[in-house]
Automatic annotation (TrEMBL):
Belongs to the GtrA family. Residues 161-189 are annotated as: Disordered. This is GtrA family protein. Residues 170-189 have a biased composition (Basic and acidic residues). Keywords: Membrane, Transmembrane, Transmembrane helix. The keyword Transmembrane applies.
Length: 189
């Protein structure tokens, strides 16, 4: 009956502040984004190394192929896991924006690899993987910001609409310090 082992009445936990709730949602979003992104990173690096191993393609071309495969993998993960609760009403626009920002991320990612390979001559398999990984990291920061801001937009929050009665009620103290609404008193005469 709401009594602890000491027989005292325990108060319910205080509701979390709006700032704390927003922070908690952001932490969950970053964790989900990281899970999909981590799996996408593995797909990207595995495909990159597989293409380099079985073909004679140049480093950046192999990287572009791997990035495209990872983009497809990531879209499915983001749409159906990370941002599954977001607005799904404009899929064509969402996919178009996702591809646009993914191409910018592809340019960032592979631009780092290109600069390392052709600008500095760092093209050993280990060096290529290091700069591919670095490019993915830089592009990921851009992708996180752009996807959450422009692609997978949050639905407008539904705020409860107070009825007219709630504006007329004034709180008064009841038993045990709880507030009970008081009906307005109408003066007659």
């Amino acid at each position: 009956m709401g009594r602890g082992s000491s027989g005292l009445h325990t108060a319910p936990p205080a509701p979390r502040s709006a700032v704390r709730q927003r922070f908690d949602r952001l932490v969950r979003e970053v964790a989900k984004f990281g899970a999909v992104g981590g799996a996408g990173l593995l797909v990207n690096l595995l495909v990159f190394n597989l293409v380099r191993h079985v073909t004679d393609l140049q480093v950046v071309r192999a990287s572009v192929i791997a990035t495209v495969v990872a983009i497809i993998f990531n879209y499915l993960g983001f749409r159906y896991f990370t941002y599954r609760d977001r607005d799904k009403g404009r899929r064509t626009k969402e996919l178009g924006l996702f591809l646009l920002f993914s191409v910018v991320g592809l340019v960032i990612e592979n631009g780092v690899l290109y600069a390392a390979t052709y600008g500095f001559g760092w093209d050993s398999p280990l060096q290529s993987n290091i700069f591919k990984f670095l490019g993915i990291g830089i592009a990921t920061l851009f992708r996180f910001w752009s996807y959450r801001t422009w692609v997978f937009r949050a639905l407008p929050s539904e705020e409860p609409v107070a009825g007219a009665e709630s504006f007329l009620e004034t709180p008064r103290r009841g038993a045990r310090g709880t507030e009970k609404p008081e009906k307005p008193r109408v003066r007659v005469g």
